[in-house]
Structures are given as C-alpha cells and as structure tokens.
Design brief:
21 helices, 607 residues, disordered N terminus, alpha+beta, 5-stranded antiparallel sheet
Length: 607
C-alpha cells in the first residue's frame, strides 16, 4: 500500500505542489498591492486634492525597501489625473520625494507620528512652492493646503493600520473599532480610485459603501454595523462629495443589518433596502439623499454572494473580532486543504481497484466510501457556523417490537430502531438464512454493520453494497440475509423505504392500509445488488408496520395478504406495542398446527 501511495502522490510531488502554491500566492499578493497602489494614487478628495499618494508611499517605504516596486504604480495612478483639469504635479513630486526620503531612512526607526509629520511637511512645502510661483494665490488654496497636510497625517495612520491588519504574520490583537474604520475607508478609497461616478443608473462607490455597512453589520452586530456605516459615509463624503446626511443614513442601515445577525440574508437585505430608501427619500424628489438603485444592488449582491466568498470575508473580519476565532477559521482552511489531498488519493485508489477483476470486492467499496465521506467533510467545513440550538422535530416516533423464535428461543431476525445524528429515525429488520443461532448471527452481522456504516456517514446505497461485498467475501460457506429498512426524516415527514429480499411493509392511515412491495434478491447472493427505494409522505397518526417473512408466510394460500391487511385494519389501538403483539398472535393463529417460522413485527406510530 505504501508503494502504491508513493506512486500516486509521492513526497517530491507534494513539495513541488506546495512550492508552486506559495509562489502563486506571492505573485497574487504582488499584483494585488500594485493594483491597490494604482487606485489609491488616483483618489481625489473633495475633487482636487490627492493626499493618498504621498501617505501610501511613506508607509510602504517605512515597512521595507522591497515595496519600492509599488511606487511606479502610485505615480501612474496620480499621473492619470493629469487630464482632469486639476493640478496634480505637486502631489506627484511630493510622492517621489517621500519615496526617496523614506527609502534612505528605512533602517532608522521612526515613530508613526514622525513618518506622518515628515510626509505632511514634504507635501506642504512642495505644494506651497507651486502655489507661490503661480500667477495668483487664493485664500482657498491656502485652506486646501492645510487640509491636505492634516489628511496626509491621517492617511499615514490609516494605511499603516491597514497593512498591519492584512499582515498574516502579525499576531497582535487588533482593536475592533479601529479595524472596522480602516477596512471600510481603504475599501471605499480604492473603489473611488476607479474614477467612475456612475454606471448606467447606479454608483459603484455608493454600492460598495452600502455593501460594507450591510455585511459588517450582519456578521458582527449592531454597534459594528453602525460604526462601519459612519466610516463608509464619511469616506464617501470626501471621495464622492456626498452630503453629510449620508453618514447618518449609512449608520442607521448598518445598525439595522446588525439586528438580523445570523438570520436569513434575504430578510436582512430586504429590511436594509427599506431603511436606506426610507431615509434616502426624506429630502424629497427629485433631490434625493440616496437613489433607489444603489441600496437594491448592494442588497442583491449580499443576498446571493457565494458562500466561499463569504467565508473569505469572514476570515478577514475574524482578524478584527477575535484572534482565537481567526486562527480557528485558518485551521479549518488548512484542514480543508489536507482533506482535498486525501480526496484525490482516495479517488485514484477507487478508480485503480475498480478496474481490477475483483472490482465488486470490499476494497473498491471502501475507497469509494472514503471518497464520499471526505467530500461530505469538506462540504461541512464550508457551511457557515450557526448557533448550537436544538430544533424540536416536527414529528416524533413511538415504536413497539414483538417477536417469535422458532428454535431454542433464538430468533433469526435482528432489528434496529434508533435515531441518527441528523435527526433521521431508522427502522431496520433483517432475516438471516436458516434458523437458530446461525440465522441470528447472519442477520445480526447485517444489522450491526449497517448501523455502524450509517453512523460513520456512509450513504444508504454504499452501505448496503459494502455489506453485500462482506457477505460474498466469506469463502467457506454461503451467507445471505434480507434487509427491510425505513428512514423517517422527522423534520419533513418523508419516509424512504429500502427493501432487499424483504417482505411487504404496511402503512396504516385511518382505516386504510397500503401494502408496499419491492422485488429484489437478498444481499450476499450476487455481486451487484439492486438498491431501490420508495418515498412516502407520512402524516401524524400514521402507523408503519415492518414484518419479517415469517409473518407473511403464515397463510401462503392468501397471496394478496388480505388476512394481514384485515388484521391491521381491525386493530383500533394506537399503542405500537399492542399492534405488534396482536399481529404476532394472529400470525400464530394463522399457522395453526403447521411448523412456524421466526416472526418479528416492528410498529412505529408517527406523532
């Protein structure tokens, strides 16, 4: 087996794949930083100041000389504003000087405030020189110069904390409020760098701002949603020259999203739209604070966002909310990657053994089962975490079992009545070949193996085929048994019946009884068994009666089983044990003096 595994997935191949993944991730990070640098270099605040370029350059150079590759992208972004009619040369020159200064000062440990002051001073001196050398100096220019100096210091802090949050190697716990403000502001600044005010009937920067408020509120709570709304509204006001009322509207909508944390995304998105439109239209048509299209588009994106993307965003938010939760999510991601490796190996082994002459043996069955179990584990890891609340099932089941042993009080019938982890209720009956101890061992092996496989997560068909292979693997003597099983979903009321060589099952509803039969050979006789099922929608008060063939053979002349149907109809008791006992008694009476077979009756009453 070790040689086979090495041939399929050897260590060198693993190392090569791991190295390739690291390289791909590294290049993706480089491309992402280049793209963000370009967009932030383009951002214009209040329509004619560009403080992001110098601030971003100063932070990147302070973090390491290797980040110098981002400088051309920042400059390229700033240069594209040349044709907007605003004077960008002062900020472009300030960005170049900041890059040179902090590239040289990289080895010196400067405080964050020191970096901010130096950057603001360089920007102010360069722009002041350009203003003074111009033909006319306006008071407005002086005011905007002072405002940009303050913003530069603020953006130095903003970008510094942003890269700290994004740095996976930084294990220090980040303040939640600070993280929400930073992520919201930088995201909106980057979208604002696109320079697209509207597309058709909506604004991309408004849609992104609304989505941020909605998502953070929904995932983190009322206060966090309100804070994200304030940060988004404030940034939007600077980027898109929005009215200050936007801040209040976004804060309220983010808080509303927080009220619906953990509930349906559709309900949350609908209420979010209602709040945004309600506040956005207060000003009155045609001058609206907020158009209808923007919150609707943001909510629709939120409602139908793929679960994988939501999971990635949750990891990012977990860095802000709680370090322990963040590492739990990262651990889940590592487990998923490991399971994908196992899945690939099991699929190859299943295909390999499936092509052999002994393709119906237990070995390929086991690898197929492991493949499905691994897939289910990966799907479970992809599911969102929900509150551990025990939901009361819609249907309950009361069961009564009665039996008759033909030989030495040892019945060849074995049964199982139990609830599974997922809330399904299983009723299973197996009749072993022969009589006495041997028949009991055969049916007991079938039932116990079936129970263990289902508990392990095998699906029904694969579990039954595995048991069939196990029985066929006995090289000394022939072993086979029947399987009669019903699986009741206690939430939906759906009953799935599987019958392999088994007698009829009866469903009693009021005074009507329906006999259900499926023709099939017992398991353990042929290599490939037919696994068919019948689905029935049960109601409260229905009775499910599963019997062994010892009951149906009590009167072989009555092929339609009219005597048994009449017996079930005439029993008025709703107690399942009474029903089972009376059916056994009637079968014994029907046999008369003839030799009797092992008999078992399972009655389940749905409440």
């Amino acid at each position: 087996m070790e040689l086979l595994l090495d041939a399929l997935f050897n260590k060198k191949e693993k190392s090569a794949i791991a190295g390739t993944k690291i390289k791909i991730g590294y290049y993706i990070n480089l491309i992402a930083l280049a793209g963000v640098s370009f967009l932030l270099g383009r951002v214009a605040l209040f329509e004619n100041i560009f403080p992001c370029g110098p601030a971003l350059t100063a932070v990147l150079m302070s973090r390491g000389k290797i980040n110098v590759y981002a400088l051309p992208f920042i400059l390229l972004g700033s240069f594209t504003n040349k044709w907007t009619g605003y004077d960008v040369w002062g900020d472009i020159i300030a960005t170049v000087i900041c890059g040179a200064v902090f590239f040289l000062l990289n080895k010196r440990k400067l405080s964050l405030l020191g970096v901010g002051i130096i950057t603001a001073a360089i920007t102010s001196i360069v722009k002041a020189f350009i203003i003074i050398t111009g033909p006319i100096v306006f008071k407005y220019d002086i005011i905007m110069l002072c405002m940009e100096a303050v913003l530069v210091v603020g953006f130095v802090y903003l970008f510094y904390f942003f890269f700290n949050i994004m740095d996976k190697s930084n294990e220090k716990e980040k303040p939640i409020a600070q993280g929400i403000v930073v992520l919201s502001a930088v995201s909106i600044l980057a979208v604002g760098g696109l320079g697209i005010d509207t597309i058709a009937f909506f604004s991309p920067v408004y849609v992104v701002s609304l989505f941020i408020s909605l998502f953070i509120g929904y995932k983190m709570g009322v206060m966090e949603g309100g804070l994200a709304g304030i940060a988004s509204g404030l940034t939007l006001m600077m980027v898109a020259s929005g009215t200050p009322a936007i801040i209040g509207i976004f804060a309220c909508s983010g808080m509303v999203a927080g009220f619906f944390t953990g509930l349906s995304r559709i309900v949350t998105g609908t209420c979010f739209i209602a709040v945004c439109l309600g506040f956005g239209m207060i000003k009155g048509y045609p001058e609206l604070y907020l158009t209808a299209a923007d919150p609707i588009i943001a909510a629709v994106i939120f409602m139908f966002l793929p679960q994988k993307l939501i999971y990635k965003l949750e990891i990012l938010l977990a860095r802000l909310r709680d370090c322990e939760q963040y590492y739990d999510l990262i651990s889940r991601e590592k487990i998923k990657n490991t399971l994908h490796g196992y899945l690939e190996t099991f699929e190859k082994l299943a295909a390999l053994y499936g092509r052999t002459k002994d393709s119906q043996s237990i070995i390929p069955m086991q690898f197929k089962a492991l493949t499905r179990l691994t897939k289910n584990m990966i799907l479970d890891l992809d599911k969102p975490e929900k509150a551990n609340i025990m939901q009361k099932p819609r249907y309950n089941v009361d069961v009564g079992v009665s039996g008759y042993a033909k030989e030495d009080n040892i019945s060849g019938d074995s049964y199982l009545c139990t609830e599974m982890k997922n809330g399904d209720y299983i009723l299973a009956l197996s009749d072993g070949m022969g009589k006495g101890r041997r028949a009991a061992d055969e049916s007991g092996l079938t039932i116990s193996t079936l129970h263990n496989l289902l508990k392990a997560g095998f699906d029904i068909e694969l579990a039954l085929r595995t048991i069939n292979s196990l029985l066929l693997a006995n090289s000394t003597e022939e072993i086979f048994s029947t399987v009669d099983m019903g699986i009741l979903n206690r939430n939906t009321g759906n009953l799935q019946l599987f019958k392999i060589g088994a007698a009829a099952t009866f469903i009693k509803r009021g005074d009507h009884v329906e006999a259900i039969k499926i023709a099939a050979l017992p398991i353990g006789i042929i290599n490939r068994i037919s696994v068919d099922s019948i689905d029935i929608k049960v109601r409260k008060g229905d009775e499910i009666i599963i019997v062994s063939d010892g009951i149906t053979d009590a009167d072989r002349e009555d092929r339609q089983l009219d005597w048994l149907i009449d017996t079930i109809v005439n029993i008025k008791s709703k107690d399942p044990q009474t029903m089972s006992d009376l059916i056994i008694n009637k079968a014994v009476e029907r046999y008369g003096l003839k030799e009797k077979d092992d008999m078992t009756v399972i009655t389940a009453v749905v409440n």
